[in-house]
Amino acid sequence: MSKQMTRRDFALTNEELRLQETLFHTANGYIGVRGNFEEGYPEDFVSSRGQYINGVFDIADMKQAEQLYGFPNKKEVILNVADTQTIRLYLDGEEVTAFGQGVRELNRVLDMEKGTALRSFIWKSQKGEEVTVSYRRMTSFTLLPLFTIEVTIISHDFEGSVSIVSEHHGSAQNFVNPNDPRMAAEAEDYLSVAETRYDEEQQLSKITAVTKTSELSVQTLVFHDVSSQLELGLVEEDESVSVVYDGQLTVGVTIDFVKYSLFLDSRRYDLEKDGGSFVETVRQKPLNQWYQEQEEYLDKFWRQAELSVVGDPLLNESLNYSLYSLIQSAGKDGISNIAAKGLSGEGYEGHYFWDTEIYMMPFFTLTYPEIAAKLIEFRYTILEKARENARILGHKQGALFPWRTISGAESSGYYPSGTAQYHINSDIAYSIIQYYQATGDLDCLLRFGGEIVVETSRLWLDAGHYEGKRFVLNCMTGPDEYTCVVNNNYYTNLSVQYQLNWLVKLYPLFKEQKADFLDKLQVTDQEISDYESAAAAMYLPYSEEKQIHAQDDSFLEKPVLPINELPKQDFPLLLHYHPLYLYRHQVCKQADIVLAYFLHDEAFDTEAIQRGYDYYEKLTTHDSSLSSCIFSIVANQIGDVEKAYRYFEESSKIDITNSHHNTQDGIHAANMGGTYLGLVFGFAGLRIREDSLVLTPRLPQKWTGCHFSVNYQGSQLHIVINKEEIHVSMETGAPVNLTVYDERRILSQENDWKIPYRKER
Ligand code: BGC
């Protein structure tokens, strides 16, 4: 089945087009280009014409109404860099646009196997003659700075002149929406053009722009490859460059116009030298070869990340879109990470959150471990800034990772639901431990992960204290952002306990391996034994009366907010209620304890999970897109497969159906990872345990089965589940331990395993 997302004969409304800009964006983890129309939109349309480089940012003022000690007054923001998307087309002097009279067969296709986005339509001239115009875009996975647009014009019965104007703007402005806290509120010119050059011999424009504050530069190079009917005419050059190609179009002839853009930044490249060699590299091959390499890259990707359900084609479209979005979004160079909106828009200002570690990393850990390792390396590169951050917060030791950041500086302005979310520390540690268990990659642990786990553990010992025999963690915010700055958030305390116990367990290995960081950080046996004691004494609040885990010390004492009685238009509540009103009630924006039930399932018995789930489900609005997928997974844990399916359906289609009404600002990348989790960890019941991969499958009525591939301990496994049996085979690699339900075996290339599916459990 081909992996495509299509939109045909869609309405040309502003709302629909902004949504499509996001959905049809093209990205490769380094650059991302929104799916804007090359020819632009009518003047009264508000479009976010955007193109981004992962990790390239400027620093903006973040005014605090009261500048208390340690509040950041600057933040990092992703930049809308050079605009090379614009191409205008004129036939006999008439401008060709999708908005023209008589335009028909509007069509968009995102081809996730070829790695291209196509837009086409049939245009009619005033005389009634028709042409088909199509635009094919690609951001190359094999040459990360490369973005191409191929314009094809086919005449049905048009004969006359053609003129193509291709523009190159070296800077662009960020999008603003003062009424939405998830968007930037004020416009600023972050980039200014330092140099514009047009090289006549090479027919190449090069613009270098510099940021106002962060001292970064962005260089874009643009050149064209055109079919023989076109000739270069006028070139205009000031801050921008605009080139015109003229020619004649006749019936039976296809005009092909290719615009190559290269995006380079000073964090990764030498802008004096590298641009020229990239241009040479691109010119060495025809576009078709770049297309072919793209397809080969994705062929490998889909083999490694293969995932499909049987009996629900629509769902497969959103599953494919989710996985494709993840590979489009992930920084793969250790310098960058995965922004909450990937590279599809400016929502959350391009910041990296805990979303990466808890929601997206598992996908990479199990399908593309080399990318997961780079995401860990990224956290290592900002460890020093995390140490500085901890000092600002008054901690004498350890590191506290920023809640929102691009290059390490804390960029969250509202600390109760920002900086106070200390759990990002244990989330990062959790993802490192899971990565290690899934891959056995000791090298990554010794070079990056181990030091992060030690430094974040030190922070916990400094942030917490003993209250009698209990180790407590006060004044922190858990994942639920409708309950802020509390004592003993259950999720946080449990994750910290997990992290400390793991450090104790890994310590002998670190010693045996003579890990450099042990010396560097002067880790002592006493320190490790302090972690052991704190973990053993960790306080985990529980209500005897209600027989459930308490989200924190005071949560269960508050009145319940009857969310079912609130008007529909009040959601998301964060846009309609003062934060304090929400904090004073039992109401949850997203999975909090329920997330703990998933990540730390071994710490609970099923009855306790059931009671907690029933209680917290009634209080949760799912105003965050990070919620439904987790409720789906835990519904599976307690055996309510049909409920799991309902949540899963909801979460898997958030962007495709724009159900949160803000996909126009960018995809919900964490939810895309959550969709993967929902299938693989939810319905297939996969868990990465210390000495075995575990599967406990459950299938909803609607599906006849599902199948997927994972990489475990370097071996590639293929898992097919249907209502008769579970079949696990190994495609490559050495034997591994596998547990299905409660039976354990060694799986090897020679010995695959079929086990009957259990209907009732
Ligand atoms: C959620 C956070 C999340 C952030 C970015 C917020 O709405 O509450 O948990 O990290 O979005 O996705």
From TrEMBL:
Residues 686-744 form the Glycoside hydrolase family 65 C-terminal domain. The keyword Transferase applies. InterPro entries: 6-hairpin_glycosidase_sf, 6hp_glycosidase-like_sf, Gal_mutarotase_sf_dom, GH65_N, Glyco_hydro_65_C, Glyco_hydro_65_M, Glyco_hydro_65_N, Malt_Pase/Glycosyl_Hdrlase. This is Glycoside hydrolase family 65 protein. It comes from the Bacteria. PANTHER family: GLYCOSYL HYDROLASE-RELATED, PROTEIN-GLUCOSYLGALACTOSYLHYDROXYLYSINE GLUCOSIDASE. Residues 13-266 form the Glycoside hydrolase family 65 N-terminal domain. Pfam families: Glyco_hydro_65C, Glyco_hydro_65m, Glyco_hydro_65N. GO terms for molecular function: hydrolase activity. Belongs to the glycosyl hydrolase 65 family. Keywords: Glycosyltransferase, Hydrolase, Transferase. The lineage of its organism: Bacteria, Bacillati, Bacillota, Bacilli, Lactobacillales. Signal peptide: none annotated. SUPFAM superfamilies: Galactose mutarotase-like, Six-hairpin glycosidases. Residues 321-676 form the Glycoside hydrolase family 65 central catalytic domain.
